[in-house]
Amino acid sequence: MARVEQSATHARTVGGQGTAQGRAVLAALATSKRFRTAQHLYSKLRTDGSVVGLTTVYRNLRRLADEGAIHAVQLPDRQVAYRLCSDDVPHHHLVCMQCGAGVEIKSPEIEELVVDIAASRGYSEVNHRMEIFGLCPACSEDSDAPDQSSGTTSTPVAHAPRRQRPDTVTLKKEGRK
Length: 177
Hints:
CATH topology of the largest domain: Arc Repressor Mutant, subunit A
Distance between the termini: 41 Å
Number of domains: 2
Strand order of the largest sheet: 1-3-2
Strand content: 5-15%
Radius of gyration: 19 Å
């Protein structure tokens, strides 16, 4: 709960005192390491007995994300999901497409690479976000398990790849695409 208190303090410092509903949303986020949509958090709050509306949940999530108290990612299905991260150190996320599990990736090498790429093209004051999506080990294991009814393995839904823009920079690591 220390991270909830730290985020609540940060949110108050940046955006005022906040509300009981805002504190409830923040506390609900703190109960999981997974990224959660507004609808999921709304259901959890209602189940836990909070009197809060869906619009209030959305408004508080957006405010907390804008203030930097929580992190938001756009999922492959275009929904936005939120998570209370462990600290304020710059980092990226590895997100499970099936269960929403989130892993923080702290890598100075990535930060240096982004700055180098931008600088080599004349850009300055660079800001970036990176989310990596896949299946976590538990969901990968579940997707490889035989389907009880037909004896076949279940396969996660594949997302159609987006067409790459001609000006998109493709990064390759030695020996890998």
